[in-house]
Amino acid sequence: MGVEENLKSLSTKEEENKNRNPNLKEEGDYDTTLPSPKKGIMEQPHQPEHLWTFWFDNPSAKSKHATWGSSMRAIYTFSTVEQFWSLYNNIHHPSKLAVGADFHCFKYKIEPKWEDPVCANGGKWSVTFHRGKSDRCWLYTLLALIGEQFRYGDEICGAVVNVRGRQEKIALWTKNATNETAQISIGKQWKELLGHKETIGFIFHEDAKRERGAKNRYTV
Ligand code: MGP
Questions:
Q1: Ligand 1 close to Cβ of residue 166 (< 6 A)
Q2: Where are the stretches annotated Disordered (predicted)?
Q3: pLDDT tens digits, 84-119
Q4: For 60, left (φ over 0), alpha (ψ -120 to 50), or beta?
Q5: How far apart are CA 141 and CA 172, in angstroms?
Q6: Is the minimum distance from the CB of 62 to ligand 1 under 6 angstroms?
Q7: 162 lines ligand 1 (CB under 6 A)
Q8: C-alpha closest to that of 151 among 189, 124, 179, 122
Q9: Which of 57, 212, 216 to mutate to test the pocket of ligand 1 (most atoms within 8 A of CB)?
Q10: pLDDT of residue 5
Q11: CB distance 53 to ligand 1 below 6 Å
């Protein structure tokens, strides 16, 4: 199945879920409806290749003096596309998250930190949006991850959206920053999936650790 078709079939599920509960994204709403199985047919859950974990860093728990990441928590690990949709439909999307929040979706057992041994030699591609404008691209990024859309899928660690006062930033973290072929392929494919026309840049974590505002090593 091609990228577009795959996204479409996953997006259709989102539409179906919205139709089931049109008030879904209101504060305090929890969708408890589940798809009713057809009589006599056991529906097999769709198993992604990897388990994925959502992580959240709560801005109200952040203090200027706290160590970076000390308030970051793994909130849910999911193993099926159905579980993904139930979670996705019951959590706030970036436009509704509080300023300062960081929301991550990483492969199970990879922590969204430079210090994680799998991330340590990696880097990230990022795209910046005006505040309130990243919801669609965040969803497309999640669908591309769990739908294993990337040709260099093994290179992917996960994705994060940082919600800030004036902007939202989505970053795609990868494992081996020096593997230029893989990074360029991932960057190009990600832009294509998002329908993003502007140039995006890739920063090595090693550089980000040394200085804030590190320079892009690759651009596509
Ligand atoms: P950032 O969030 O990657 O940069 O890191 P940005 O987007 O320029 O800043 P923001 O204010 O919009 O969040 C910001 C700072 O957070 C870094 O300079 C580090 O001090 C700290 N930091 C970020 N990350 C991803 C890590 C990490 O993985 N490990 C540690 N120890 N510190 C980090």
A1: no
A2: 1-42
A3: 999 999 999 999 999 999 999 999 999 999 999 999
A4: alpha
A5: 8
A6: no
A7: yes
A8: 189
A9: 212
A10: 45
A11: no
Under 8 Å between Cβ of 183 and 143: no
Residue 84 contacts residue 142 (beta carbons within 8 Å): yes
215, pLDDT greater than 50: yes
Nearest-CA residue for ligand 1 atom 18 is 212
Q: Which has more confidence, 146 or 38? A: 146
Give Cα separations from 136 to 23, 77, 214 (angstroms): 18, 22, 27
How distant, in Å, are the alpha carbons of 73, 78, 162, 177 from that of 55?
5, 12, 12, 23
Query: Reduced to 3 DSSP states, what percent helix, strand and coil does the chain have, rounded to the nearest 5?
Result: 30, 20, 45
State pLDDT tens for residues 3-56: 344 434 444 444 444 433 333 333 333 333 334 444 455 667 777 788 999 999
Please name the CATH architecture into which domain 49-59+69-219 falls: 2-Layer Sandwich (3.30)
- Looking at per-residue pLDDT, the higher value among 187 and 5 belongs to 187
Q: Atom of ligand 1 at shortest distance to CA of 67? A: 31
Using CA atoms, how far residue 71 sits from 68, 95, 144, 150, 187, in Å, is 8, 21, 27, 31, 30
* Residue 1 token pair: 């199945």
Q: What's the CA-to-centroid distance between 98 and ligand 1, angstroms?
A: 18
Q: Does residue 114's CB lie within 6 angstroms of at least one atom of ligand 1?
A: yes
